[in-house]
Task: structure prediction
Amino acid sequence: MYDLEDVMMKSFRDDNGISSAFSIEPVDDNEYRVSTNVVDGLNDMIHFNLIVYPNGTYALNDRVFTARMIDDNIGSFSSIAADVARLASEFGVLLDDRGELTRDYINSRDLRSEVNNFTQLLNRVVDFAQLNRY
Result:
């Protein structure tokens, strides 16, 4: 856990060395819930899961939280899924048929930028849904 916290602390430092607020809590063996201080257009904190693989790589996954939040608060996620998939591909993230966003096999040296990119993607998906209500 110490090594993961060290990596996460570094991953949330901006270029000026200022740390953003976050929390990380265990969900299961090798899986953690990350809450950032970034707030989406619905005034909700952005959350996602971080998975640690045995080979030392990581994955980021929203566990369909974003799709459910859009369905519950904005409109039909399925009506914008194709657009979200295109947006996600710009970030190297996959969208599955359930609406789950995943960025897989991240090296520890890339975790900083990938966490920031994943946070930005989730925020942009909510913004897109709000602008394109169906």
Remarks:
- The chain is about 35% helix and 25% strand.
- The longest strand covers residues 31-39.
- The mean pLDDT is 84.
